[in-house]
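queue> holo job accepted (adenosine monophosphate)
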Amino acid sequence: MKIIRHPTDMQRWALEQRRAGASVGFVPTMGYLHEGHLSLVRLARARAEQLVVSVFVNPTQFAPNEDFTKYPRDWRRDERLCREAGADVLFAPRAEEMYAHDASVSVLEARLSAGLCGVSRPGHFAGVCTVVAKLFNLVLPTVAVFGEKDAQQLRIIQRMVRDLNFPVELVACPIVREADGLAMSSRNARLTPEERAQATCLRRALDAVEHAFARGERDADALRKIARGAIERAPLARIDYIELVDDESLDPVVLIEQPTLCALAVNFPSARLIDNTVLRP
Ligand code: AMP
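queue> job finished
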């Protein structure tokens, strides 16, 4: 496995691969890899001749009050896991080399970013779109894999690829969970034991919503209330949002008649957690 640090070296390698006719799979991550990331890596590995994994904690997608400096990092472990998973390249640029000091161009998605995490994390999706666009230009992937864990991010990247004609196929990977249902996340490492025990409330809320939906409940407010009840049983959990939105447009829904994304964000004292499920009538 090659480790590439410089954006220009990354692009040179990618151009060589593409000129030679090789397909390139790509999994962008912020590192501190877990089984969720590795499921993306395996999917990409199976779909391309060359596989690039990036580890880059992108400063521009964190607001000043967010956890950029506290974001968990473990370079040695990430390197070993990428090697074991069969990556050909681990791309780990430094922020100073990714962004010119006077960088002034970014990618703004104007509709899907407005709600859900976009409300409490202003600027977050501009940071995400811009870094993913840059990574696509450096890695030149034929196929890129993203997780359904970050449902809004996935839909925004799909929109960006469609609207800006990026020549890349996107593949979505299902959410990988711990045995007790908590969606795997690098941020889980920051939870105290007490918070970790209570963090199962997100999955329990989604379970309750899915059960009510299966029994025929179609009223979004009623489902939101059910989710709220489940989360409020965890004393350390503070609800950021519980939303039911159209799975494509991410517009709020009142009655569930189309595939609907039920998305949650919950603040614990040590970390903000998200989870989601899609309800299909
Ligand atoms: P991150 O390192 O958090 O930026 O995540 C990198 C990629 O891994 C994103 O496409 C995430 O959606 C995906 N991912 C993170 N956690 C999970 C999970 N538990 N299951 C599936 N995909 C995940």
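queue> The domain at 2-173 is CATH 3.40.50.620 (Rossmann fold).
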